[in-house]
Structures are given as C-alpha cells and as structure tokens.
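Kindly go through one protein, given below as sequence and tokens. The question is how this chain folds according to its tokens.

***
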Amino acid sequence: MVDQRFVPSVMQLRVFLAVAERLHFRSAAEELGMSQPSLSQALATLEEGLGLHLVERSTRSVLVTPAGQQLLPYARAAVAAMDAVADAAAGSGGPLMGQLRIGVIPTAAPYLLPGLLPALAERFPSLRPRIVEDQTARLVEALRSGAIDLALMAVPTDAAGVVAIPLYTERFALLVPSGHDLDGVDGISPEALADEPLLLLDEGHCLREQTVELCRRVSVPVLGREESRAASLATAVQCVAGGLGVTIVPESAVGPETRDPGVGVATFADPSPGRTMALFLRTAAAADDAYRGFGHVVTEVAAEVFGAQAV
C-alpha cells in the first residue's frame, strides 16, 4: 500500500534516474559517487514508499517497468527544479562557484579541455569543474536527470527539456595515411570519399552521424561498405596511420601536437563541411547570464587553440 505521507528525496530520484539511464547498478553508483549497496537501498526505499516496482533486476539485465517509465518525466522535472532552486540560492556567486559537472562529447574533450580547464581556473577561481566525457544521447539524459549541470555537444541535437546555445563552428578535415595521394591537398571535394575506405566511429557518436549525412548529401555510399570502425577518434587515427583507411575529423584534432606522424591531412573546398558546438543547459537554467559567461570562455579558448569561429 502506498504511504500517502511519503515524499521522495532528491537523492532517491537521482538514483532512480541514474539506474534508468545506465540500466546498470554499478555504473549508476559510480556516476553518483556512492556505493552500490547504498544505491540499491535508496532505490528500494523509493519503491517501498511509492508502492511501485520501478525497476526489474535480474542476473543479466536491468529494465525499467511500465510504472517506472510513467514516472521518469516527473522525476526528471523534479530534479531539474531542485537544481534550479539550488542555483538561485547561490545568490551573487551563481552557478560558477563550487562544483560544476560538465559533460563533453569524446570528439571534443581531448582537444578543448587542455586549454579550457586552465582558462576556467583563471576566470572562475572558485569553480571546481568535474568532467564527464560521454556520447551525446547519454549526456542529454544526464543533463535532464541532473547528473550533470551542462554539456558541450554538437548541434543539432533533438532533445526536449534542454536548450542549446551555439558557441563556435569548426571545419572538418580528412585524415589520410602519410604519403597518400591526398596527403597535403587543399580544396578537395567530398565526392573524393567515394573512392576511399572510410573509417567511421561506432554508433552513438555524433561525428559518425555527421559523416554519414555529409556522404548522403553528395551521394557517396558509406554504410554497408564493411570497412573498419572505431570506438574512439584516437583509435580511428591509429587505423589511418596503419593504412586501413581515411577518416573525417574536426579541425581541432589536426594540430601537430595531437596528430600521429603516420597521418597526413587534406582540407575540403569551401564551403567546407563542419560542425557547430553548443552549450546545452536545462531549460530552467538557460536564462542565467553566468552560464553564458561560461560559454564565452569556451568560445575564446576554441578560437585561440584551433582557430574556431565564434557563432
């Protein structure tokens, strides 16, 4: 029977959202910085208080029940509202004091963070950044659930409940094995990809989706070619260096300090394909000028480090 006096705590809702997102108790516990037994107990207390089974757990899998699915949007909204209360209570300090949980997509983090973290320390000395590197879909869910405070991702990203503030654009380049016919060539056409073994990132990476879309626009077949594929951009670069194919990367990944010596670069003709990076926030936080100040720092760093253009 439901305890009519029971009111879930914010932490209990965070636990439910983390388990529903990860579908894995250990991963959810690590995300929230708590032990697995404590997480299981918090979820059990929430289910007991509500009188509902929210999650089904077996030795092989974790599933969200229909009742859990029905409560998910309300749990997300409640956690987001409480985060907004905490942000407002910070007063003049705003959200850029204390811990700030920043999500970053894997194709941006290695190139943006080395410049961004020192810049944040200089501009916001009271800020303690916590970095969460993950794919777009999981970052969106973490943002909605309150597990992170903001995210740096490419647009477009179709996600209800979050707002994107465009920051900068960067061109794409083509990485090829050193000595390849296209090595050092400027102004190539995307149609040139039709004759190359194109390496793609795994499903879930927005750069994969952008590469596929570029190939579709110029009628270059890309899917079903059974070429090598990689779980990370670093692995894709190593495959290129090993002569397994070519791959499309953002310009931030082509600097001499980040590129393998066995890899060459070709640039696309104007208008060059590229991507727009944006600051993603929960809707309730989008009007906060402090976050926009954070976005300005990101844009300045991207322009200085790899020549990105502010939007």
Q: What stands out?
A: The domain at 93-311 is CATH 3.40.190.290 (D-Maltodextrin-Binding Protein; domain 2). The CA atoms of residues 195 and 262 lie 21 Å apart. The chain has a mean pLDDT of 86. The first helix runs from residue 10 to 22.
